[in-house]
Write a structure and sequence with these properties.
- Strands 1-2 form a two-stranded antiparallel ribbon.
- It has three helices and two strands; from the N terminus they run ααββα.
- Among the domains are: 2-36; 75-118.
- By secondary structure, the protein is mainly alpha-helical.
- The chain is 46% helix and 6% strand.
- The radius of gyration is 46 Å and the shape is rod-shaped.
Length: 121
């Protein structure tokens, strides 16, 4: 008995669906029009991608190193910039030799004057 009822429900559902499609032909026409419509296309161009992000904060290096000089003086030539990669032995800067030369000459004079007062030359 349940098989007959189930079969009757299936047949009525299929018949009702077919009748509804016949009464609404615009649905079938819309599907056909979608299939026949041309697919929109775009020409590919090579462009630079510009994207910016506004943020506030502080940027810190992953590693930092303290650089010290054995002598003091005015930096005459700076050979590197912030962010440059360097290795051991690379020349980073040059100190103005005028001040060092004057200090050296003063020490020589002090030695001469000390040696002259003690009888050394």
């Amino acid at each position: 008995m349940w098989r007959w009822i189930f079969g009757l429900v299936v047949v009525l559902s299929l018949g009702g669906g077919g009748w509804w499609l016949v009464r609404n032909p615009q649905l079938l026409a819309a599907d056909a029009a979608k299939k026949d419509a041309p697919t929109p296309t775009v020409t590919i161009e090579l462009k630079d991608l510009e994207e910016s992000l506004g943020a506030s904060g502080e940027v810190r290096p992953g590693e930092s190193t303290m650089v010290k000089s054995e002598v003091s003086g005015v930096v005459h030539v700076l050979k590197v910039e912030a962010g440059d990669y360097v290795k051991k032995g690379d020349l980073l800067l040059a100190i103005d030799p005028k001040e060092l030369d004057s200090q050296l000459e003063a020490q020589r004079l002090a030695i001469r004057s000390y040696g002259g007062s003690k009888g050394f030359e």
